[in-house]
Predict the 3D structure of the following.
Amino acid sequence: MTEAQPANSPAQPQQPATFQIEKLYVKDLSLEIPHAPQVFDEQVQPQIEVHINTGESQFSEGYYEVTVSATVTARVGERTLFLAEAVQAGIFALRNVPAAELGALLGIACPTILFPYLRETISDLVIRGGFPPLLLSPISFEQLYLQRLQQQGGEGPRIEVAQ
């Protein structure tokens, strides 16, 4: 025998949470080679500095844009060989996701999906600029998300990687 629902509280079926990738795209792309063509004579290994940032915004009911950006600077001493910047973005549809889980989805899962595309975009951009391939090292977006939570209202997450 089953218990009947009280007459004043109708049973509301719980809608399942959904997560869907709607679109992936390059939002911004830039390559600067300030000392070309002389930099192509450089025979030393440059120092590579990488900055990774993430961001998210809701732009419509249930739709979020998430971005992962990379700024890569190659230097020999004080001289900049190149500066490559890319912002990889995605539109994600999230419905019926509990508020407690939304931050982790937007801050960890979505950037993890976007990162391989960003990595390929940066590598392709650097090669097209006439330089050897550059592959960004894997990133722990969980660590980045936890740093953001600790900052609470700071500038936003940033990871600096020396390659």
